[in-house]
Amino acid sequence: MRPLLGVLQARLFAQRRIVFYSCAAAFVAGLCQPTGIAAPLFLCSLLGIALALAQSPGLHPHLDYCEQSAPLFGRELARAKALVPCVAAAIAALVFIIAQALRGTGGLPLTLAIALAALVAATLTALSATIRRGASRVLYVALAAATSCAAYAFVAVVHSLVGELVFCAVVAFLALRQYGETLARYDPI
Amino acid sequence: MRDATFATVGDRVGPISIDLHHGGRAALVCACARDAQIVSLLAAGIVKASSGCVLIDDYDPRVQSVACKRAAALVPHEPFALDEREFARYVAYRAALWNVELRRAQLHASLLRKRLAPMHEAFAYPLIGALIGMPKLLIIDRPAPVYAPTILNATRGRALLTVHADAAAARAFASNVESVAAGGRS
Questions:
Q1: Neighboring chain B residues of A71 at a CB cutoff of 8 Å
Q2: Residue A78: which of A189, A182, A185, A180 has the closest Cα?
Q3: Best mutation site among B12, B38, B93 for testing chain A: the one with the most A CBs within 10 Å?
Q4: Residue of A nearest to B100 (CA)
Q5: CATH no. for residue B160?
Q6: Is B167 part of any domain?
Q7: Is residue B184 part of a domain?
Q8: Residues of A in contact with B67 (CB under 8 A)
C-alpha cells in the first residue's frame, strides 16, 4: 500500500499543472454544456486518456528511474501508475459535476456514476499506449476512444446503466491486467 | 556478469564479464555514453541481458527481478535539481517505494547529506536516494571523477560498480578497470 500511495502522491504532485488545467476545462464545460450524458462521458474519458498519456516514460525521468529500479512486481507498479490518471480524471469529473450543480442540473449522482465508469475504462485502456510506440500506440488510444463510444451506446442507445457498468468493469479489469503484464516485461531502452 | 550482452535492433553492448564481491569496487569503461547507460541498467537488473547471465546477490533479474532490485541500486547520470521541500518529498517517495520507515529514511538522508557536502546537490540527491534503500550493490552511471573521494567515502562497505565513457574517470574510482567491447550500432 505504501508504494502505491507514494507513486500516487509523487506523480500527482509532478503533474499538478495538467491536473489543474483538466479541472478548469471540466468546470467550464460543466457550466456551459446543455444537459445530457454525452458531454460528461466523452469529456471525462478524453481527460482520462490525456492524463494516462501523461504517464509516458520520459516526461518525468527521475520518477521513471525510481519506479523502474524499485523492488516492486509489475502488477504492483501497474496498479500504482494506473491509479494516478484515474484519480486525476475522477477529480476533473467531480469538478464537472460541481459546475453542473451550480447550474441547478438534476440527476447528478447518476451522471457521475456513468462518467466515472467510462473514464476508468478509457483511462486504463489508454495506459497501455504509454509503453508502446508507433502504430500500436495509436491503436491503444483508438481502443480507449472506442471504449467510451461503447459505454455511451450502452447508456444512450440500449438504455442500460447496468450494462454500461458491467462493460466498463470488464474492460477496466482486462486493460489493467494487460498493462501489468506489459510493464513486467518492459525494458526502458 | 558472465558474457552478458544487450542487443536490440539499434544497440549492441558486450559481452561483459565481471565479478564483484561484497564491499568490492570495479569500474567499467564503455565506448560511448549510450553504452554506459545501457550497461548500468543491465548491471542494476532493470534491463535484461539478451545473452549470457547477470547475477545480483545470486538472483537472476530475468526470474527474480524484485530481489535483484532490493540488492542493487542505480544512480543515473543526469543531475536532479531540487529545492529543500522537494528533497524532503523525494526522500519520502523513495522511502515509500523501498518500504523503509520514513523517520529512518529522513535521518539516513540527513547523515548522507553531511557526508556528501562537497558534492553539488543536484548530483548528491540521486545518490542519497539510492542509498536510502540500503542496497548491497551500488551502480553509478558516469559519475564525475572530481567527486570520487566523496562518493567512495559515502559508499564504504558496499559493493560499488561505476560505469564510464572515459578511462581516466574510471581510474579515479577503482583500480579494477575493465573495458566493455563496443558492439556497434546500426
A1: 66-67, 69-70, 97-98, 133
A2: A180
A3: B93
A4: A2
A5: 3.40.50.300
A6: yes
A7: no
A8: 71
The reply to whether B107 falls in a domain is yes
Distance separating alpha carbons of residues A80 and A11, to the nearest angstrom: 10
Three cell numbers at A114? 456513468
d(CA A181, CA A177): 6
CA distance A17 to chain B (A): 16
Q: Does any domain span residue B185?
A: no
Query: Which residues span the domain enclosing A139?
Result: 2-185
Q: Where are the beta strands (DSSP E) in B49-175?
A: 51-53, 72-75, 137-141, 159-164
A66 contacts in B (CB within 8 Å)? 93-94, 97, 129
The whole-angstrom distance between residue A41's C-alpha and the CA centroid of its chain comes to 12
Number of domains in chain B: 1
String of DSSP letters for A98-163: HHHHHHT-S-HHHHHHHHHHHHHHHHHHHHGGGG--HHHHHHHHHHHHHHHHHHHHHHHTS--HHH
Instruction: List per-residue pLDDT tens for chain A, 189 residues long.
Output: 888 999 999 999 999 999 999 999 999 998 887 778 888 899 999 999 999 999 888 888 888 888 988 998 888 888 999 999 999 999 999 999 999 999 888 888 898 999 999 999 999 999 999 988 889 999 999 999 999 999 999 998 888 899 999 999 999 999 999 898 888 877 777
Q: Quote the number of domains for chain A.
A: 1
Q: Which domain covers residue B110, as residue numbers?
A: 2-179
